[in-house]
């Protein structure tokens, strides 16, 4: 087990880390011991009842109406896939499917395109709408694309916004996109796999204003709600849409049919029939910690990323590529070079190599794990800093070490280049 990257390590900053609260481990162990089947109420009436109440509570936090419902799933990818199927069935006649168009952005998570492909849509049916300088979908561009498609006889049916863009932590303008979706009668999906958790922070929940206008909302608790794998959630504005797409029928399950509206059979709301009670450890964690504490843990991540940004701004030669947003920051070291006369020298390539090497060495030397990404053409370091265990002091130490590695690496790479080693 030591031969792996522990995604819950406080200094693992790649992808979306998974800092886990000890209550989630405990809740997980208890549920594994009982091995409750949460597909239907008669198999796990306690777990189904608690999960359904929890889903209702999450829907309220998101600002969704009482008609809302949802299902716990394995994670953001399956939540998004479930939303795509639900949207397709709610908005399209079967004969329209080949003409349907979905609007996303360059920063939309790859699981959306994967889900669309699984469902049978072609790449040509996906529009990547222009974004602004903060990588947020431009509402005016969205409207133009929709108009163009309608004129070509195509059928716009779904807009995907992101609350917590994986690369940057940014949030699309949910209200502006919801306005367009509403006026054009499109399904409005918000992928909040990462960022929806900000709704549980009293001081930052306003950042995610507009989630309540979603037709469906993805929200992962194994990202920023301190849960073990797996724990994802899909919320839908009107739960009847889930049932229309996923109702399960077979002669051998008739005895388990939902006897009343409070006896939910989750196999009627999603892809899986057999399923664990994924929401129970989350319920347990929330009961044990209380909402104030969970909110503080989320705020801590937001504060740490802002702190890191401040530290970088105080160092020489570091450039902020995308400022701290929801615990994520993108930056790079730009070595001060007096360009060698060698005509083959490419400063951008050199800069990319320096930053790739900074990340590699930080991991190799057991300092921390910032990883690289690309925003536009620029390769940069990206840190998602959400561990409640990490202190500002420890983070300051990490940033100092990165600065020292940056100086060392840029000198050694430049030397190699100049002397063609
Ligand atoms: C915005 C977003 N959506 C979806 C996903 C996929 O989630 P999962 O890995 O749980 O399937 C991720 C993963 O990082 C994400 O950041």
UniProtKB/TrEMBL annotation:
Gene Ontology MF annotations: carboxy-lyase activity; pyridoxal phosphate binding
Modified residues (N6-(pyridoxal phosphate)lysine): 223
Record keywords: Decarboxylase, Lyase, Pyridoxal phosphate
Sequence similarity: Belongs to the group II decarboxylase family.
Cofactor: pyridoxal 5'-phosphate
GO biological process assignments: amino acid metabolic process; carboxylic acid metabolic process
Pfam families, per the entry: Pyridoxal_deC
Name of the protein in question: Pyridoxal-dependent decarboxylase
């Amino acid at each position: 087990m030591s031969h792996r990257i522990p995604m819950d390590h406080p200094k693992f900053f790649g992808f979306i880390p998974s800092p886990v609260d000890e209550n989630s481990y405990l809740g997980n162990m208890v549920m594994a011991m009982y091995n409750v089947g949460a597909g239907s109420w008669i198999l796990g009436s306690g777990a189904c009842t608690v999960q359904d109440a929890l889903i209702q509570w999450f829907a309220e936090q998101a600002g969704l109406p009482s008609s809302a419902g949802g299902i716990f799933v394995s994670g953001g990818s399956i939540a998004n896939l479930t939303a795509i199927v639900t949207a397709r069935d709610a908005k399209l006649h079967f004969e329209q499917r080949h003409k349907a168009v979905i609007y996303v952005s360059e920063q939309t998570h790859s699981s959306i395109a994967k889900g669309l492909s699984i469902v049978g849509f072609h790449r040509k049916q996906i529009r990547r709408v222009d974004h602004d300088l903060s990588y947020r979908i431009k509402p005016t561009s969205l409207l133009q694309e929709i108009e163009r498609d309608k004129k070509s006889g195509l059928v716009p049916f779904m807009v995907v916004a992101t609350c917590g863009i994986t690369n940057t932590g940014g949030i699309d303008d949910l209200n502006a996109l919801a306005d367009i979706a509403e006026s054009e009668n499109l399904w409005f999906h918000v992928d909040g796999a990462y960022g929806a958790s900000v709704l549980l922070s009293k001081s930052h929940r306003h950042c995610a204003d507009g989630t309540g206008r979603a037709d469906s909302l993805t929200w992962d608790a194994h990202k920023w709600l301190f849960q073990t794998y797996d724990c994802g959630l899909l919320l839908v504005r009107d739960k009847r849409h889930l049932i229309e797409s996923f109702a399960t029928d077979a002669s051998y399950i008739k005895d388990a049919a939902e006897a009343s509206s409070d006896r939910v059979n989750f196999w009627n709301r999603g892809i899986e029939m057999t399923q664990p009670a994924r929401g129970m450890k989350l319920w347990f964690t929330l009961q044990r910690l209380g909402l104030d504490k969970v909110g503080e843990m989320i705020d801590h991540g937001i504060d740490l990323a802002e702190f890191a940004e401040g530290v970088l701004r105080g160092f020489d030669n570091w450039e902020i590529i995308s400022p701290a947003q929801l615990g994520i920051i993108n930056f790079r070291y730009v070595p001060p070079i007096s360009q060698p006369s060698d005509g083959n020298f490419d400063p951008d390539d050199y800069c990319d190599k320096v930053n790739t090497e900074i990340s590699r060495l930080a991991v190799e030397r057991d300092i921390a794990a910032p990883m690289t990404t690309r925003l536009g053409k620029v390769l940069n370091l990206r840190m998602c800093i959400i561990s409640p265990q990490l202190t500002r002091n420890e983070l300051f130490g990490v940033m100092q070490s990165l600065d020292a590695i940056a100086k060392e690496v840029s000198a050694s790479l430049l030397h190699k280049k100049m002397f063609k080693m």
